[in-house]
Amino acid sequence: MFQKFSEKSDPSAGEARVTALRARMHEEGVDVYLVPHADEHQNEYLPERAERLAWLTGFTGSAGTALILADAAHVFTDGRYTLQVRSQTDPAVFTPQDLVANPPSGWLADNLKPGMRVGFDPWLHTVAEARRLAEVCGDRQAELIAIDRNLVDAIRNDVPPLPLEPVAIHPLEFAGETPRDKIGRIADTVKEKGAEAVVLTDPASICWLLNVRGQDVAHTPLTLAFAIVPTKGEPTLFIDKRKLPVRTEAYLTQLATLRPPSEFDDGLRELGATRALIMIDPALTAHKITEELRHAGATLVEAGDPVRLPRARKNAAEQTGARNAQRRDGAAMAAFLCWLDEQEPGSLDEIAVVTALEECRRATGKRLGFDLAEISFDTICGAGPNGAIVHYRVTEKTNRKVDAGELLLVDSGAQYHDGTTDITRVIPIAEPTAEYRSHFTLVLKGMIAISLARFPAGTRGVDIDILARKALWQAGLDYAHGTGHGVGSFLGVHEGPQSISKRGMQELLPGMIVSNEPGYYKAGSHGIRIENLVLVRPAEIPEGGEIAMHGFETLTLCPIDRRLIDVALLDETELDWLNAYHTRVREEVSPLIEDEGVTGWLEKMTEPLSR
User: CA distances (Å), 205 to each of 188, 276, 498, 499, in order?
Assistant: First the structure.
């Protein structure tokens, strides 16, 4: 099994650990200390060594920050984790706060007193974050203190070792472009921005640029490394050679100078001393890196990571790989959902469901000659009220029976060498109630609205997010997460800069893959989310139109449960889309299925709906 079910959260340890941290804070002479969910690369999903926030507080979500004072402790999380943070932390120690409405910098602006000293680890906060903190401290006559030794690590006696998982070459047939061509493109972009070199800190960018994949982060094929790409000369890659098999090392040696991570600080100083203008992404680069560059005499050119947009805009090979991966994953999902329908209500628990799904993906991939490389994240499998916990992760402690009369929400994904998948489906266990069907159909209307959207060049995710919420809003309902996130090509299941959300400011460009996943969650009762991945198509002028419009190609191929749809709530356009989608699912997925029982189930679940 790729997924484990052990309990990672230990709320009972929070009080003792915070007490120990406060003692360290006193030794360092700071009144406030920040503990973000972050590593030196600003990864969303972290290697075990960097899970400091979880170790300190018990909260295991993928976004958050703890703010520790002598007499209080706060944990800031976003809307995905409102329920989770309360269940995973000790309420006598930690106060939950809203990361979006009142982030740590806002809280400090309201509560800092003159003379207070705020400590932070300069490796775990970006340039932009440190700048905001410095402004707040300056306004409040407080002082921001960079502490190189992480104070959480200082009180841990069980700091995990650095990950040293092997690095593999990503085949050109899946990458679609040689690393030399990519490096040339990136060097040109850096030169256009007026810089002489760029420091890359995002492992996804480095893996994409060099056509390699790693295993340093669970479920995400990343290798942890830093890189410097100059406009002239070859790049330098700071990577532990213990992770490089002979063939991979020989391959990388032809592309870059290889140096150990222990020499990265020296490399930054050398870079600052020899090249005057260095490009960094203030939203991704650790504050410590910029301090080293400045001290060496460099002038910083702030701009977005030049790899992110090319990485987000999938080339022809990556698009083909995505389609093939989704079709294969659709066959696995059909086998899983057919199996699930055959089980008696109450006979399964959430762990059994997750285990069966992973086995279906593994067996289907093997049968089709394309092994499952990994899952793309821990499967979210929530029965009944657990489905209302947006990023719920089942453990042996929380494992719940899947009982009759409930909804089962399953959000899962796979990593195949040709693509990354992410899909959410909701399954009724026995006959669904009218409330379930109403809520589900309102969510479905939003998902269809995004699927059918046409939009001109320059449109951003924020501009179309409302389409997914309109039907819910009219019913007085909403959801507290984005409608869609970018997805990588055998890389991160969450990829920027594109998104469909209230904060999605990136223009949607041809070749980008985004998820389409509106939802609704009723605490203590049920959760609903319907998710397909979609690909941004090149703009075309619609028949009879005047302006070229982009649209979406739906990539995910899996039935949407007919039993939960209230057809009376769908208009003709929505119903036509649904029936056409199900016809396509049947036609593209059926040839990949050998089991007649699964084929029969798929035919039944994709029959046209009518009023």
Answer: 16, 23, 15, 17
Residue 570 and residue 439 in one domain: yes
Domain coverage including residue 285: 168-311
Of 200, 462, 174, which is closest to residue 316 (Cα–Cα)?
Answer: 174
Residue position matching structure tokens 């669904």: 432
Predicted model pTM: 0.95
Local structure of residue 460 (DSSP, 8 states): B
CA–CA separation, 361 and 331 (whole Å): 8
Side chain identity, residue 327: R
Binning pLDDT at 50, 70 and 90, where does residue 592 land?
Answer: very high
How do residues 267-304 score in pLDDT, each as one tens digit?
Answer: 999 999 987 899 999 999 999 999 999 999 999 999 99
Cα angle 123, 129, 135 (rounded to 5 degrees) comes to 125
Beta bridge partners of 513: 535
Q: Are residues 339 and 462 in the same domain?
A: yes
The per-residue pLDDT for 360 is 98
Residue type, 149: R
H-helix or E-strand spanning residue 209? helix 203-210
Q: How many residues does the chain have?
A: 611
Q: Which string of DSSP letters, residue by residue, matches 568-589? A: GGS-HHHHHHHHHHHHHHHHHH
CA distance 580 to 563: 17
d(CA 24, CA 155): 8
Q: What's the rounded Cα separation, in Å, for the pair 474 and 442? A: 10
Q: Can you name the residues that pair with 230 across neighbouring β-strands?
A: 197
Same domain, 505 and 556: yes
In the structure, how many helices (H) and strands (E) does the chain have? 19, 27
Up-side HSE of residue 590: CA atoms within 13 Å toward CB? 15
Task: Kindly tell me if the per-residue pLDDT of 406 is higher than 90.
Answer: yes
CB 500, CB 465: distance < 8 Å: yes
pLDDT tens column, 196-228 = 999 999 999 999 999 999 999 999 999 999 999
Q: Which of 155, 182, 198 is the last residue of a domain?
A: 155
Question: For residue 16, which amino acid is it?
Answer: A
How many CA atoms lie within 13 Å of 16's alpha carbon, on the beta-carbon side? 7
| Alpha-carbon span 200 to 189, nearest angstrom | 13
SS3 category, 69? strand
Banded model confidence at residue 9, pLDDT cuts 50, 70, 90: confident
Give a yes or no: residue 407 inside a domain: yes
How far apart CA 381 and CA 336 sit, in angstroms, is 13
d(CA 424, CA 263): 43
d(CA 307, CA 284): 12
Q: DSSP E strands: which ranges in 335-422?
A: 374-375, 380-383, 407-412, 414-416, 419-420
SS (H, E, C) 17-44: HHHHHHHHHHHHCCCEEEEECCCCCCCC
Q: How many domains does the chain have?
A: 3
Question: Tell me: the pLDDT tens digits for 347-373?
Answer: 999 999 999 999 999 999 999 999 999
Counting residues of the chain whose pLDDT is more than 70, the rounded percentage is: 100
Tokens, residue 541: 């002028």
- Same-domain check for residues 552 and 521: yes
Answer yes or no: do 192 and 182 share one domain. yes
Domain contains 604: no
Exposed (0-12), middle (13-18) or buried (19+): which is 61, by Cβ within 10 Å? buried
